[in-house]
Amino acid sequence: MVTKQATGSRTGPGPAPGQRHVRASKQRAAYPYTLYLPAAVVYLVIFLVPTVMAFYFALTRWTLFDSTFVGLDNFRDFFAEQNLRIGFANTLFYAVLTSGLKVVLGLLLGVLLTSKLRLRGFLRSVVFFPVLVSTVAVGITFSALLRPDTGLVNKALALAGIDGPDWLGDAGTALLSVALVDVWKGVGIATVIYIAGIMSIPRDYYQAVAVDGGNAWHRFRHVTLPLSWPATYSVIILSFIGGLRSFDLIWTMTRGGPGFTSDTIASIIYKQYQAGFFGLSTAGNVILFVVVTAIVVPLNYFLGKRQATL
Amino acid sequence: MRALKRFGVEGIALLLATAIFLVPFSFMLLTAVKDEVQSSDLDFAWPTSWPIVQNFVEVIEARDYVLLRAYLNSTILTVASVALIVVFAAMAAFVLQRRAGKIGSLANFLVLSGLIIPPAIVPTIWLLQALGLFKSLPGLILVEVAFGLSYAVLLFRAFVAAIPRELDEAAMIDGCTGLTLFFRVVFPLLKPVTITVILTTSVAVFNDFVNPLYFLPGDDNATVQVTLYNFQSQYNTQWNLLFMDIVLITIPPLLLFVFFNRKIVDGMTAGAIKG
What we know:
The complex is a heterodimer. By secondary structure, chain A is mainly alpha-helical.
């Protein structure tokens, strides 16, 4: 199966006819499709085959060793899960909130850290720091900081006379808290993307604004904001996909609780896998696949179109 | 007056950044060096005693030196998968950027799919089992490579676009084609973005928790992230050891960052984001 798949990807189109022939043969020699081969083999076997098989196994009752075809039963059961509707709404809320905040904060930090700030280098490292710590470690740390009684967050709030909630134990705040921690951890990447984007804006534009007598706001509004659009696009797409698939932080901090109030599609899938419902879990995976594709593909198209008209 | 105002803004920014980003880290460090009783308060108090060495030794010795085995496993996993991702993705990105056509658009589509599609976990387990690679380090390496390729290809492709084709043609006149053209001429030029890919991918693989949990269960095969999970259940209340473990496994990515800090943005500015 392996070799078949691999050679399949190598078979190029026949030689182009007519005047293009020379260029085509030159291309064939300089950029042979064999360079695709290693990546293609691993990708096809380890990623694509399971993805395609998922569509079949989702329709079965499955123990890894043998499977009985049960039609759409798994999907019916999955949709009948009482927590699925919550999980669905949570996933969307989480993805929108985290990617939105990452765009806003990443842009602000990006502007701040490309300005003439003296402590720029230090601050850049500080903001990027959380990216280096594993999600599980971040989850454990914030679970401790967000404790209702001894946690630092509520102690600080108490100093200001505010009675903080039980962030992770309260149904109303659990998912929000996890999302904010996600932003804390991920905003460093967004910031680096924005820094790269802002630094590649030619200086001339800023000079033009200066000639017209513009101030810092004008520079931001008319140069930085529109010209860092490619960065915004990358941040939105990357963090939105990450948000829709989010699992490890939620799992470490709340396990989907209290009750099912912070469950996302990914955590429901994991729970079903843990319980041994492999077919059901795979059906969940297929649903997640459909949801992600249905949202990201149009979003990508829409954002890409906006980029082209700029 | 203006200078004063700017100074004020800088001061506030610094203060905020420190509070928001550094306080959690100081909390980790403080808890890691406390004794067991005091650490269980999970507060921000100054340590009354400093059993640093003792905590360190206890974490290392726990569960028959599982942390050392985990370090070894994680190192092998990270080095092997990052090396494969870098070479495979750079090769693919090179052809993808240079050669259009039906195969090119198909490859393009697959790269984007890899970024968007959530991996089908249980069918992947089933497949690895059929290949005899389930619960093995090579199996997990292949999984990390397959899941990490797309992002790396995107970064590389944008960077290849910035390398002039004339260079390829000059090399071809000198008789370089295919593999030699790529490895002798193009790959060395990709150094800035290669560093970006190495850094981001190795941090992602080293810190990965989900895939080892699914594909490499068991104490013998533990990776460093999974040791946190073990510590949590075994040392339910020994928070000092748990945080000592966190500190210890955060050191490698931190070192990597210290060495490559400045190059990350360079690699991204050089082309990746313009794409």
